[in-house]
Design a protein that fits this description.
Helix content: 40-55%
Oligomer: single chain
Strand content: 5-15%
Shape: globular
Distance between the termini: 30 Å
Order of helices and strands: HEHHEHH
Mean pLDDT: 85
Radius of gyration: 15 Å
Strand order of the largest sheet: 1-2
Low-confidence stretches: none
Length: 101
Amino acid sequence: MTILKALNLLRVEIESDNQSVISLCVSETVPPWDYSAIILDIRGLGSTHSLSFSWTSRHNNAAVHWVAKACFSKTLPVTWAVCPPAPLVSLLSTDVANLPL
């Protein structure tokens, strides 16, 4: 979470199109053993930082889906965060254009 401090972010909202993951992150139930390490880490970060978790549809999460897919297929450029590829820029521009006023 040093990135939160580096960017001076006081509150961060984590969105996912996976309702099960969001539910596991905010509940106190024991997560399945194969996910328990990461879920418990996320819960720990949430308790020490101002994180909120919310579900969003994949349609509203297109940019993140594109990044995950590119990463999985090993086509995501190393510099994607500072110099986003054209398809990602297009998705982000669409997201911004669809924000409520």
